[in-house]
Amino acid sequence: MSTTTADHPATGRGAAWKEAWRDPSLHMQRTLAMVLLLCQGGITVTGSLVRVTGSGLGCNTWPLCHEGSLVPVEGAAPWVHQTIEFGNRLLTFVVGVAAILVLVAVYRAGRRRDIKALAWISLGGVVLQAVLGGISVLLDLRWWSVAVHFLPSMVLVWVAAMLYMRLAEPDGAAPTRRYPARAQHWTVIAAVALCCVLVTGTMVTGSGPHSGDSGVGMDGRLNLDTKVLAYVHAVCMYLYLISTLITAVLLHRTGAPEDARRTSWILVGLILVQWAIGVTQFRLGVPRWTIPAHIAMSSTVVAFSAFLFSHAKRRLPTLV
């Protein structure tokens, strides 16, 4: 008696996957891009867990975990610290795989040049981040090396968010302005303010109590008043909030497309949540549990800022 592919579900699924990869659908491309975006944001949260648990030197060298060993070594450091730091390093490979899958998908689908460029930046950024993370370990987590490791992650979140949006656009269409130029100018001003927020935020962290490793203490920390830096950080945040509010109002008054207006108001709400977390940190003396939440919201805010920015000009389907 003969059998068909349908008689063997595993074989059928394998054939279906092979066929899907031969010419990835738009849905598949965007799903992979969303996975990449979540990975880029997620690894910043696991990185913050490394910091608040003092596990930054759980693996004290790079690319090995310890001298002569790729994996944790019993007794070389507390096992909890080794597990957290080594786990965070392994997640880099997960992000890398997601970036590779996106790159392969857009090439096999024959997408346009700017989409391929964003996919290459995402993959190259993962490699760069692995190197920067290793350098920060070799420098015993000096504050500026940790900042240099964190800030590119925010850039990669922005790139992944832009990639997710651009993938939805037809390649053959021309870019169309979807809201007034003055509103777009305010999105640029907001983006600049966001950069200032992120940079000053790393400075606040660099002068604060959480060095990333319990044995480092305040050695290599930023020798500036944390309270003053927190006020500077807050001013930058208010400028970012105000410029985003102005953008949202302009979009509302000029009758911009609903998706752009909705994104702007969601972003305003996210900034307010981030503000509340920041105020809580300041009032409570930066308790450990608030840091992962603050970092997670940073990635979320950056992603929605990129969404809003990308709404300004989009390639729309041609109506027949």
From TrEMBL:
Keyword Disulfide bond listed: yes
Record key words, sorted: Cell membrane, Disulfide bond, Heme biosynthesis, Iron, Membrane, Metal-binding, Oxidoreductase, Transmembrane, Transmembrane helix
EC annotation from Swiss-Prot or TrEMBL: 1.3.-.-
Cellular location(s): Membrane
Pathway where it operates: Porphyrin-containing compound metabolism
Membrane topology summary: Multi-pass membrane protein
Transmembrane segments: 31-50, 90-110, 117-137, 143-165, 186-208, 228-251, 263-283, 289-309
Main location, first listed in the record: membrane
Molecular function terms, GO-annotated: oxidoreductase activity
Enzyme class: oxidoreductase
Name of protein: Heme A synthase
Taxonomy of the source species: Bacteria, Bacillati, Actinomycetota, Actinomycetes, Mycobacteriales
